[in-house]
Amino acid sequence: MNSAEIPSFLLYGEGKTSGDAHERLLHVESIAARGRFYNWKIRPHVHRHLHQLLLVHRGRGEAHTDSAVTQFRPPTLIIVPAGTVHAFAFEPDTEGFVASIAADLLNELVLRDRGIGAVFDAAVTLQLSAAAIRATDLRHAFQMFVREFNRLAPGRVAALEGLLVVILANVLRLSHTFGQAASATTGRHQLLIAQFRELIESHFRSGTSLAEYAKALSVSESRLRSASLQVTQQSPMRLVHARQLLEAKRQLLYTNMSVSEIAYALGFEDSAYFTRFFTQRAGISPRGFRMRQPRTS
Q1: CB–CB of 246/123 below 8 Å?
Q2: Which fold has domain 9-174?
Q3: Taking the domain 199-292, which CATH number applies?
Q4: Do 277 and 237 form a contact (C-beta atoms < 8 A)?
Q5: CA distance to 42, 130, 152, per residue, from 297 (Å)
Q6: What is the pLDDT of residues 92-137, one digit of tens each?
């Protein structure tokens, strides 16, 4: 990429945004609808406030999510959380679906069933078996989802949101990442950490302290630490540092910004300290990381 910034879109190629424009959006289309227009190559970009689910049932391809590259063949389910830099190279005439879900809408659904939020904990490409797909309602639900999306009929919004819940429930059942229903205490901790992660997204560039995070969440530092260790097995500040490291990797991989520019953009006053921070956590220097990664153009 020649630009200094990772392109941010509402939907790919539409509504280029700095990240502030987001609505209670729910959108679905076939992979071919956009893939054909872009010669089956979706270049690196990000949706700041949209989660995405892709179900591929015909055609092979390559998925780039942050610095990971995965070759896939059908059937495949690809999960792209909001804020993830991603790109795809699809085989011509690939068939499947893409659902885009506003973070605000997902948050409403999570209030009904906290397990749904776990779907978008991390970017993942799930290589499935045909038998696994047939054992679910996922493909049929996506077909109904697309049909309903293209209708202008009474009850359309309610129908779309109901079908979305069916799809997310099927994704939960397909993935072995998610365990059984959590206890009430665990559920409260999960909700707190979900709120903490949202705060991290807004403040990881500003050097916000643990005390300031805890105050914003109206909890003590010890409670925040306890919840973080239970839910993620990591301390709160380690989550903050992990987010800074992830953003640094994105900028190194997908932009032409210098190491110093990236350091200052992430709130580091000293680029040498940033280099030490990155090297300690990534096991390689920022320049070394950039040089060893394949560039997606």
Answers
A1: no
A2: Jelly Rolls (2.60.120)
A3: 1.10.10.60
A4: no
A5: 10, 32, 39
A6: 999 999 999 998 888 888 877 777 877 888 888 888 888 888 888 8
